């Protein structure tokens, strides 16, 4: 009887789904062809998380326990005495997040003071959406610890974002980093800032920071910042031994985000095919990944405009609203979940 070999994908977000679909469409068919004709068909299982593991585990890899884990990036958690709300953290069961979203919508409807912490795209987009929807019925403050919004975009575009936010009623407060928060007896939230000041809000939304969800990995497979120690050219995890790879934000090989991920998946797939087929005389060429450092980010602000650039070229507000602002790419999800994005290698 032929030996059963396993390919494990940890994660079912953009990275895990993309890696699994690419494997099923382009690597597994070649493996099956290379087998004895009488060998049983290769079966596939549901992907679990955004890194991959194939046979030939090293001692480090074997130390990982098989248990249920959350997606590979999660919202940065403050100290235990200052827990982040379920709205912006991973809770395991999706119903917890759904309930938190419903409760937030109820609170927003009657809120008079809203504070959003975070000057990155999530904070800016959240502030723009809420301000547009409430149409001046609440005071909205956006906090950032930096001297500008949107760190991946040039200063002129960041200033443009500030002016757009101010136009819909958002006050941007620079040099004000949230360090903690707590509920008050009257149901409001007190937000502590790193400058010693405090703010009080009916609604507080922390929208800053991500932390790689790699607590379950051995330390020798992680970088100093907690990301998977990934070879930036091959996307292999060399310290874990042969046939171990990392995909998505957790790999830490680029600025993060779906666009960078999608550029890396074909390289990841080619190198997995190269390694897996090498044992049966395959000749799939290795490929090298080169992370692009150009200015690429689209940030809708409300329903009709936004700021951003693609490959260093600025995009007009109406184009950003048309491309991303309508549904934040939700309409493209079937291409990811059903694998249509990866029909071509």
From TrEMBL:
Signal peptide: none annotated. It comes from Friedmanniomyces endolithicus. The keyword tRNA processing does not apply. This is FAD/NAD(P)-binding domain-containing protein. SUPFAM superfamilies: FAD/NAD(P)-binding domain (SSF51905). It comes from the Eukaryota. Residues 100-255 form the FAD/NAD(P)-binding domain. One of its GO terms (cellular component) is cytoplasm. GO terms for molecular function: electron-transferring-flavoprotein dehydrogenase activity; flavin adenine dinucleotide binding. Belongs to the FAD-dependent oxidoreductase family. InterPro entries: FAD/NAD-bd_sf, FAD/NAD-binding_dom. Keywords: FAD, Flavoprotein, Oxidoreductase. Residues 31-90 are annotated as: Disordered.
